[in-house]
TrEMBL record:
The organism's place on the tree of life at top rank: Bacteria
Keywords carried by this UniProt record: Cell inner membrane, Cell membrane, Membrane, Transmembrane, Transmembrane helix, Transport
Annotated family: Belongs to the vitamin uptake transporter (VUT/ECF) (TC 2.A.88) family. Q precursor transporter subfamily.
InterPro entries documented for this protein: YhhQ
Function: Involved in the import of queuosine (Q) precursors, required for Q precursor salvage.
A Pfam cross-reference name: Vut_1
Main location as per UniProt: membrane
UniProt membrane topology term: Multi-pass membrane protein
TM helices/strands, residue ranges: 12-32, 44-62, 74-94, 114-136, 148-172, 184-205
Protein name: Probable queuosine precursor transporter
Signal peptide per UniProt: none
Localization: Cell inner membrane
Length: 215
């Protein structure tokens, strides 16, 4: 009896898919802290989120837009599971012997209102998908202008991410214009600093892995 051939997954795709899946929920948790970078203030969740941007762009470069889009869609699984598990854990009774400051801080750090949860899911899906689309439209798969393409796609997607997240989370609750502008500036600056280097690293590592382990 004939057996169907085993489908080989490229080593680069396997590695970066694992990293991608871990970074998706991490962005939400680290976002509880505001960091000051000189005159700029931004949620710490931007660091894993820009890593997601760089990985998705790198996968688009290495394996094409269709594969990168699938990776983005699969990212909803750890994101939504993390939210469900967080809500579940917050409903459980707290051990009386738990360290007192941690007992008070835990629900503040990990708990989010339904609007922020919805905003996070929506902003993730739209902004990372947009990043892949823009990046892939700019002469993908040939290595040309890789840092510039990575920055442009990241910067534009982060502007949209900020518009969605801030509007859904805070519209009608607090003034959002200044908050939105500050977040956009901070994210674009960080995109310029981080994303070109990360995209080049992802592509270089991916090509080396796939060349050494062709399957």
């Amino acid at each position: 009896m004939e057996t169907s051939p085993t489908r080989v997954i490229a080593p680069s795709l396997l590695l970066f898919a694992i990293l991608y899946g871990g970074m998706v929920p991490l962005g939400g948790f680290l976002g509880a802290k505001q960091v000051a970078l000189g005159p700029l203030a931004v949620e710490a969740g931007i660091f894993p989120f820009l890593t997601l941007i760089a990985i998705s762009s790198g996968i688009a470069e290495l394996h094409g837009r269709v594969v990168a889009d699938k990776l983005v869609r699969l990212g909803f699984i750890p994101l939504i599971l993390a939210i469900i598990l967080t809500v579940f854990v917050l409903q459980l009774p707290t051990d009386e012997g738990m360290y007192e400051p941690a007992k008070e801080a835990f629900p503040i750090i990990v708990g989010q209102g339904w609007r922020m949860m919805a905003a996070g899911i929506l902003a993730y899906g739209v902004s990372v998908s947009l990043n892949v689309w823009i990046f892939a439209r700019m002469t993908a798969n040939n290595g040309r202008l890789l840092p510039l393409r990575g920055f442009i796609a990241a910067a534009l997607s982060q502007i949209i991410d900020t518009l969605i997240f801030i509007t859904v989370s805070f519209y009608g609750v607090r003034p959002i214009a200044d908050l939105m502008l500050g977040q956009m500036i901070a994210k674009v600056v960080l995109s310029a600093v981080m994303v070109p280097l990360l995209v080049m690293a992802v592509v270089a590592i991916g090509r080396k892995l796939d060349a050494n382990n062709p399957g």
